[in-house]
Amino acid sequence: MIVRKMDYDSRCFCGHKFEEHHGGCIMNQEYFDYPIQVQGIMGQECEHDQVNGQYFVKREKACKCSNFRPSSKYIQQLVKEWHEKHPR
Prior knowledge:
The chain is α+β, with helices and mostly antiparallel strands. The chain is built from 1 helix and 4 strands. A hairpin with a 2-residue loop joins strand 3 and strand 4. The termini are far apart.
């Protein structure tokens, strides 16, 4: 089995890379091994066409993605397994 790690080039369902999403620092110890993170950062709202909520250019179809959701089936499976090990 090939083990892949999520990185800044990982794609979201919105079609944009992880690095194009606003990053939030993980502060809760329970999430230190969470699969949807890169170097302790979780992807939040997509900023492909904006920075801190300010649009670069007015567009009719600006990206409205509110948090990073991996398009990779492999990472989705890792998240499912992580949630099974960390029930709430």
